[in-house]
Amino acid sequence: MLRTGIRLLALVLCVSAGGDFDWTKNEKTSFYYGTFPTGFSWGVGSSAYQTEGAWNTDGKGMSIWDVFAHKKGKISSNETGDSSCEGYYKFKDDINLMKEMKLSHYRFSVSWPRILPSGLRSEHVNEKGIRYYSDLIDLLLDSKITPVVTLYHWDLPQVLQEKYGGWQNASMVGYFNEFANLCFERFGNRVKHWITFNNPWSISVEGYETGEHAPGLRTRGSGAYKAAHHIIKAHAKVWHTYDMKWRSKQKGLIGISLTADWGEPVDVSNQRDVEAAERYIHFYLGWFATPLFHGDYPAVMKEYIGRKSGQQGLGASRLPVFSPQEKSYVRGTVDFLGLGHYTTRYVTQKNYPSGFGDSYFADRDLAELVDPKWPDPGSEWLYSVPWGFRRLLNFAQYGNPMIYVTENGVSEKTLCTDLCDDWRMQYFREYINELLKAVRDGVNVKGYTAWSLLDGFEWDEGFSERFGLYFVDFRNKNKPRFPKASVQFYKCIISSNGFPSQREVESWKRKAVETCSSSNQLLAADPLIGHMEMVTEIVVPTVCTLCILLSAVFFMFLLRRRL
Ligand code: BGC
């Protein structure tokens, strides 16, 4: 009842994201020295298929990624995640790495077919899979690292794809809810941060529109919208289940992780470019965030897809419609917004005539451009544009939600085995600094997750792109991990909680001196230590100075005699 009241109030108070965003105010300001609020959470992330390996071990069922990666021609060099980093066997070592970094949280995902091999709870629960995640969670908690658990990082049980067509089918909403419910039942006494879906944009567009990702379908112009519709409903159902059944006992939070690039108008004084950039973001982030915060798709999506569907002679829009009941069911079902962000594009208006064919991309009527001066060290699509991060965070204001940055990082090409990843340190330094500026702007960010702990299986790119803070030698069957220079760098940011200004450093030093001098007094009470201090602090410097003076006098004396 109270929750419903709060949701209604939030609805009344909330303003649409980007509504009052000032496009002209793009301060590309210099580096900002300062620290994050106390309690800010620093972490790293991973996902099951990218790191676990053990693809057919201990009763695990097949996922759509196991099947997709085994098909020839789908993945760069036909690589698979069969063994990947062997994280399933090496999680204890990995937690030690995290402990050394003094991380506050670790984001990982549960492989649905590892615990429900056929996808369905009614058929078989794989206790060995449950044990693996349970042990992982216990060890994290023993190590004072908060587990942040993603329920779906793309590895749908293959049986559900084959029998029902995966996310094309509405029945997935119920099956996902059963799986989530099992996770709450078995892990919910220890896990307090749940992420239902990771990057649903990618699941929908790359899985069902372009087919670059599993399940590899190319149902252009409709499949992605249908998949997204079911994902949004599935998220909402899980939120309601948790709310009704578990929240009062377990006191956890349910969020979703949305990934979006920033879109900057090519010409900010041109209204058509500004609208194109806004459309770019609404088709990316708003597609999911607007229904979950406000109960319906962004008006601009309904308008564009509806108009184009009409021009294509279709009787109804390719974008599915929420009924009034569904609108109120999905609205307000986010306890925190997870945000994944990597890069930026310039955007300009571009008309796609109706004869061009159905496609998510054509529906947006825009073109994406990049500045050739932007650094792009690794993945082809990933240009380093730090200021875009602050812009996105300021735009994503769906009633000032609590935000966790759930992914941010940069890759390098696989052949580059140089552990001195200075471009990654540069990327982290600048992106985290823009995050700090966003916090100062008033954006309610509670934590940051560097992507990723280890190099891993980079989806259709196989192992050819490395996002890890730790280098993994995939050619060695033990998959040893080696720290790149960015490990130490990130550790420094964590230990100083940002980028302390000179003034802050001075005041810390003062405090340290005060603490030290009181501890010195304690130490000085010990006569031996007192004596040693006198020797090192008074006797040694005095003797050295005398020696230097005497040698100088002696040297001058010699010189004068020669002259
Ligand atoms: C995905 C990660 C992936 C990263 C870089 C993200 O959207 O969630 O699994 O490694 O992109 O491609």
From TrEMBL:
<keyword id="KW-1133">Transmembrane helix</keyword>
<keyword id="KW-0472">Membrane</keyword>
<keyword id="KW-0812">Transmembrane</keyword>
<dbReference type="GO" id="GO:0008422">
    <property type="term" value="F:beta-glucosidase activity"/>
</dbReference>
<dbReference type="InterPro" id="IPR001360">
    <property type="entry name" value="Glyco_hydro_1"/>
</dbReference>
<keyword id="KW-0378">Hydrolase</keyword>
<dbReference type="InterPro" id="IPR018120">
    <property type="entry name" value="Glyco_hydro_1_AS"/>
</dbReference>
<dbReference type="Pfam" id="PF00232">
    <property type="entry name" value="Glyco_hydro_1"/>
</dbReference>
<keyword id="KW-0326">Glycosidase</keyword>
<keyword id="KW-0732">Signal</keyword>
<dbReference type="InterPro" id="IPR033132">
    <property type="entry name" value="GH_1_N_CS"/>
</dbReference>
<dbReference type="GO" id="GO:0004336">
    <property type="term" value="F:galactosylceramidase activity"/>
</dbReference>
<feature type="active site" description="Nucleophile">
    <location>
        <position position="407"/>
    </location>
</feature>
<comment type="similarity">
    <text>Belongs to the glycosyl hydrolase 1 family. Klotho subfamily.</text>
</comment>
<feature type="signal peptide">
    <location>
        <begin position="1"/>
        <end position="17"/>
    </location>
</feature>
<dbReference type="GO" id="GO:0004348">
    <property type="term" value="F:glucosylceramidase activity"/>
</dbReference>
<feature type="transmembrane region" description="Helical">
    <location>
        <begin position="538"/>
        <end position="559"/>
    </location>
</feature>
<dbReference type="InterPro" id="IPR017853">
    <property type="entry name" value="GH"/>
</dbReference>
<protein>
    <recommendedName>
        <fullName>Cytosolic beta-glucosidase</fullName>
        <ecNumber>3.2.1.21</ecNumber>
        <ecNumber>3.2.1.45</ecNumber>
        <ecNumber>3.2.1.46</ecNumber>
    </recommendedName>
</protein>
<dbReference type="GO" id="GO:0016052">
    <property type="term" value="P:carbohydrate catabolic process"/>
</dbReference>
